[in-house]
Amino acid sequence: MRIEKFEDIIAWQKAKILTLRIYALLEHNRDFSYRDQIQRAAVSIMNNIAEGFERRGDVELRRFFFIAKGSCGEVRSLLHLGRDLHYFSESDFLYLHDLALETSKLLSAFIKKLG
After folding, report:
1. Burial of 24 (0-12, 13-18, 19+ CB in 10 A)
2. Residue 103: which residues within 8 A CB-CB, separation 6 or more?
3. Would you say the C-alpha torsion 44, 80, 19, 39 has a positive or negative sign?
4. What separation, in Å, do the N-terminal and C-terminal C-alpha atoms of the chain show?
5. DSSP letters along the chain, please?
6. Whole-angstrom Cα distance, residue 45 to residue 22?
7. How far apart, in whole angstroms, are the C-alpha atoms of residue 31 and residue 35?
8. Pick from 72, 79, 63, 76: which is nearest to 111 by CA?
9. Number of CB atoms found within 10 A of residue 28's CB
């Protein structure tokens, strides 16, 4: 299957689900610093995938996918903190953490394919 647009990239689709779920779960959280940081990191995953794809060059695509992978790590780290601060239930933490990890693995596979 040929990817025609960034919305076709499974990693972007997963990142979007991750981002929307984080926004929903933290909607009423009053720790604005934490909330803003994890939301920005999640949005960064989506946006770097999109930006890299739109630049239409393998070198740029790899670079932006690596940045997106870094944001996946940041989200996972913040999820651990959020769980410890009781901002997330254990089941929400596990779901979000697995989704972030899956997104990171998809990006790694894509990067590897690019060479």
Report:
1. exposed
2. 11, 14, 15, 18, 45, 68, 72
3. negative
4. 19
5. ----SGGG-HHHHHHHHHHHHHHHHTTT---HHHHHHHHHHHHHHHHHHHHHHHTT-HHHHHHHHHHHHHHHHHHHHHHHHHHHTTSS-HHHHHHHHHHHHHHHHHHHHHHHHH-
6. 13
7. 6
8. 63
9. 6
Q: Which domains does the chain have, with CATH numbers?
A: 6-114 (1.20.1440.60)
Q: What is the pLDDT of residue 115?
A: 78
Closest alpha carbon to 21 in 103, 85, 84: 103
Task: Look up the pTM and report it.
Answer: 0.95
Q: Judge residue 105's burial from the number of C-beta atoms within 10 Å of its C-beta, 0-12 exposed, 13-18 middle, 19 or more buried.
A: middle
Which residue has tokens 């996946």? 72
| pLDDT of 1 | 66
The backbone torsions φ and ψ at residue 85, rounded to the nearest 5 degrees and listed phi first, read -90, 5
Residues of the chain with pLDDT under 70: 1
